[in-house]
Amino acid sequence: MAAGESLQPFFVNVKTHFKFKNVFKFDPLSKNHFSFSMKLKYLPLLLLVLIAFSSFQPNSFKGKFFAESPYYIVIDKSDYEMHIYDEEGWYATYPIVFGSKDLSDKMREGDKKTPNGDFTIIVKKKNPKWGPELLLDYPNAESYKKFNERKNNGTIPRNAKIGNGIAIHGTRPDEEWTIDNYYNWTDGCISVRYSEMLDLFNYIPVGTKVKIQP
User: Fold this and answer.
1) CA 130, 77, 118, 66 torsion: positive or negative?
2) Cα separation of 71 and 84, whole Å?
3) How far apart are CA 9 and CA 21, in angstroms?
4) DSSP labels, 127-176
5) Nearest Cα to 181, choosing from 114, 108, 101, 92?
6) Less Cβ around it within 10 Å: N or C end of the chain?
7) Residues 182 and 113 in one domain
């Protein structure tokens, strides 16, 4: 329900489909089809319902980031940092590395670059080498759009492939030093320390939105 939208259609709909004993009585002969008989003891309850619906504005709730998750993630490639936000604002920051010193947008499969754009975590799983990982929905529609445009204008070869499997995951258990030394070692994924990934995996749910920016 949008802000300022009348509550009357909602209650008319409720009255049409539900029967509230001793609260509402349906009168089919009435001009407006409804007449109310309300006991005083129900009045406080109805007032609470009215207040709740008049103050509920889902469209103002942090936008699309909170459609599926109470968190969202912003990855700043140039700063080698991953920021976690919740409904109240900044929540945590983790140092990260990537797959290439070239931090520009991913162009094709095998270039070891990390894609820019807006993504969603779609799978949580365990990798036998580095443990927990959060798989992103790369390539998504925007990824394919950029990829096809680059093919058409000759930026990448016509036989290039877009790639897949981009995820947020940890280092191997004994290789946390790669984060401390900004050593880019992945095939395009985002890597945090192994110990910190265990924590992330516990509280970041599927559906969390992820923005990757230069």
Assistant:
1) positive
2) 7
3) 20
4) ETTTEEEEEE--S-HHHHHHHHHHHHTTSS-TT-------EEEE--TT-T
5) 101
6) C
7) yes
Q: What is the spatial distance between Cα 59 and Cα 170, in angstroms, rounded to a whole number? A: 35
Domain count, the chain: 2
Last residue of a domain, one of 41, 60, 79: 60
Q: How many whole angstroms from its chain centre is CA 11?
A: 32
How far CA 130 is from CA of 29, 61, 122, 168, in Å, comes to: 71, 36, 19, 11
- Which ranges of 26-104 would DSSP assign to H, the alpha helix? 43-55
Q: What's the residue count for the chain?
A: 214
In a domain, 185, yes or no: yes
C-alpha to C-alpha distances, 56 to 10, 53, 70, 208, nearest whole angstrom: 13, 5, 17, 23
Is residue 2, in this structure, part of any structural domain at all? no
CA pair distance 70, 86, nearest whole angstrom: 6
On whether both 51 and 154 belong to a single domain, the answer is no
Q: Are residues 159 and 56 in the same domain?
A: no
Give me the domain span that covers residue 126. Answer: 63-213
pLDDT in tens, 135-180: 999 999 999 999 999 999 999 999 999 999 999 999 999 999 999 9
User: What is the domain-level CATH number for residue 113?
Assistant: 2.40.440.10
Do 174 and 73 share a structural domain?
A: yes
Q: For the sheet containing 89-95, what is the strand order?
A: 89-95, 81-86, 72-76, 209-213, 117-127, 131-136, 167-170, 190-192
pTM of the model: 0.69
